[in-house]
Amino acid sequence: MGDSISLTLKKRELTGKKVAALRRSGQTPGTVYGHSLDAMSVQAPEMVVAKVVAKAGKHHLVDLDIDGKKKLGLIKSIDIDPVKNTVRHVAFHIVKQNEKVETDIPIKLIGEGESEAEKAGLVVLQNLDNLAVRALPKDLPDVLEVSITHLVGAGESVTIDDIKIPSGVELVEEDTSIAIANVYEPSALAAANEAAGGDAQDESEVEAENGEDTPQATQDEESKPGGKDQDEPKQSNVDANK
After folding, report:
1. Which range of residues forms the domain containing residue 182?
2. Same domain as 106, residue 21
């Protein structure tokens, strides 16, 4: 783990449609839950939350201070405003130091630009950005690294099996043959992109269908950071607390 990240939260009274006024005042609404803790509505200054989200992502522990009570949490979900690119809502899952948790860890390619493939003009394209792991909170890594310096020709790849997994960390994915990055001929990659682009829907059509400022009605459901045995708030409660 890297440096510790802390965030002070206050219990939130405003819920539902009143949350819009809270955001206009410079506060970001959130939810905290887990380990028999009923879903609690919280808030914190917008700029502070943005810095914590940028630094912690969904893989770094956050030391939470909720009205003076100390908790340890992982960010479960982040709702980003698609127009303003600001954090509209953040949910934290409480974890315990002595219990393993599951979460996604970013994958970092080591040696970009240094492989024989890239020096020969080929393209190394990463197609797997995160990998689910299981570990004690103290053993969660900030990133999982995999070297691509040995890649030479088109069609070669690096897989999950090529990652050096840190001690105390278990992979959730059992199939380690899944490719993380592949080597492509530039011409073949360009042709594939052009073919994919031809099937894409015009952005203006998407906006017309969805509306320019339609708020997200529900929080996206994701895999639980704490595993199957952890408490998760009912979706109706989370939606009401936004």
Report:
1. 102-198
2. no
pLDDT digits (tens, 9 = 90+) for 169-225: 999 999 999 999 999 998 877 777 777 776 555 544 434 333 333 333 333 333 333
Give a yes or no: residue 57 inside a domain.
yes
Query: How buried is 178 (Cβ within 10 angstroms: 0-12 exposed, 13-18 middle, 19+ buried)?
Result: middle
Helices and strands (H, E) in the chain, number of each type:
6, 13
Q: By C-alpha distance, which of 135, 138, 118, 131 is closest to 160?
A: 131
Minimal CA–CA distance to 87: which of 75, 97, 99? Answer: 75
pTM, to two decimals = 0.68
The CATH number covering residue 189 comes to 2.170.120.20
Beta partners for residue 65, in sequence order: 8, 70
Structure tokens at 150: 């040995």
